[in-house]
Specification:
Elements (H helix, E strand, L loop, with lengths): L2 H24 L7 H11 L5 H22 L4 H46 L6 E2 L2 E8 L8 E10 L2 E12 H21 L3 H18 L10 E9 L5 E7 L5 E3 L5 E3 L22 E4 L5 E5 L1 H4 L11 H5 L7 H16 L7 E7 L5
Antiparallel strand pairs: 1-2, 2-11, 3-4, 4-5, 5-6, 6-9, 7-8, 7-10, 10-11
Helix pairs in contact: 1-2, 1-3, 2-3, 2-4, 3-4, 5-6
């Protein structure tokens, strides 16, 4: 529910009591305000604290007794039945409030654990690496309590600044386990291997090895889409990209230009080499001064609006100007939320690096 809608909803219990009393006062005695008064604490239960729900319940019961006294007791049994109805519903609302509060506390606890696990898997990168400005974000899906397998990592290595953005198939702890394997293998291989192709091969071997050790880890049909990139040491005018079944990154230029960077040769995601093996080949493109390389998971491209149309980052970002990687990621996250009109339905991992001007 949007903030304005939530604010209006919080006034609804009071409005029901006021409407109920006015309805009782302006209608003949055979009409009753009990339905309005009984509804007020029920509406308050999921929105307010236990104390506020109790105050609402007490106000509803008191209002029922006052309007009954005002009209006089023409039908004793009917008046008692109406009063008992309001009391019973008010007590039920207090019970519902208690259950909702316990559930909220448990969900908050699970979310805290999930966020801590995600921070451990995906620590925030430094703002600058080898002269490049860097920014990364992880945005959880509206499911909230389910940890996703989206991942990002970047580090300065003897071979240049290397980075990865990936998406492990599935949700929950199995996806997190696979993400930990991929990130850990990447950090080790990025320092040791001379090429992105060799890094991708190390990731393949790590997933296969861990899949054999841990029952259920990306088992049988699991896979990880990923895009690896490298800004070589000593020559930041180019960027090398190796794509394994992942949404292509974007290259944004200072003048508002935008270029999608699909792979010249398609390749299967990591973990599917047993299905069909293809030799990895990285693509090399010009990285202009002031340009930004933007990598992201399919939580961005598969976001839909109410009409069911997918979010198109190329169309939405082309012609725009950004102050830096942080500004770019903030704008994308806000724009996706605005486009869908709600929290994202899927996790999003985003990473952006910018080559400084004059280099």
């Amino acid at each position: 529910m949007s903030p304005p809608g939530r604010r209006l909803a919080r006034w609804l219990p009071t409005a029901l009591i006021v409407i109920g009393v006015l309805f009782d006062l302006v209608t003949p005695p055979q009409y009753t305000a009990a339905p309005f008064l009984a509804a007020a604490p029920l509406v308050a239960a999921p929105l307010f604290s236990l104390r506020a729900t109790g105050v609402t319940a007490l106000a509803a019961i008191t209002s029922e007794l006052l309007v009954a006294t005002y009209h006089g007791v023409e039908d004793y049994y009917e008046s008692v039945t109406e009063a008992i109805t309001v009391v019973v519903v008010a007590l039920l609302a207090l019970g519902i409030n208690r259950v909702v509060r316990i559930s909220d506390a448990r969900l908050a606890s699970v979310r805290d654990v999930s966020e801590a696990a995600q921070r451990a898997v995906l620590p925030a990168p430094p703002d600058r690496l080898a002269g490049l400005a860097v920014a990364a974000r992880y945005v959880g899906a509206r499911a909230g309590a389910r940890i996703g397998g989206d991942l990002h990592a970047i580090q300065d290595t003897p071979h240049g600044v290397r980075m990865i953005v990936g998406d492990v198939r599935g949700k929950g702890l199995e996806a997190v386990e696979a993400a930990v394997v991929v990130v850990g293998a990447f950090r080790e291989a990025a320092d040791q291997e001379a090429s992105l192709e060799a890094v991708a091969h190390r990731l393949e071997r790590a997933l296969k090895r861990e899949g054999g050790r841990r029952a259920g880890l990306d088992e049988y049909e699991g896979f990880t889409t990923a895009v690896l990139a490298e800004v070589p040491a000593g020559d930041q005018s180019v960027v090398r990209i190796l794509n394994r079944g992942h949404p292509p990154p974007l290259l944004l230029t200072p003048d508002g230009g935008l270029r999608e960077l699909p792979p010249a040769t398609a390749a299967l995601p990591l973990g599917l080499t047993d299905v069909a093996g293809f030799p990895d080949r990285s693509d090399e493109v010009f990285f202009p001064a002031g340009g930004m390389l933007f990598l992201f998971t399919d939580g961005v491209t598969e976001a839909r609006n109410r009409a069911g149309a997918f979010y198109d980052p190329c169309a939405r970002l082309r012609g725009s100007h950004f102050d830096g990687p942080d500004d770019l990621l903030d704008v994308v996250i806000e724009d996706v939320a605005r486009y869908t009109g709600e929290a994202p339905a899927d996790d999003m991992a985003l990473l952006a690096v910018q080559r400084p001007l004059g280099t």
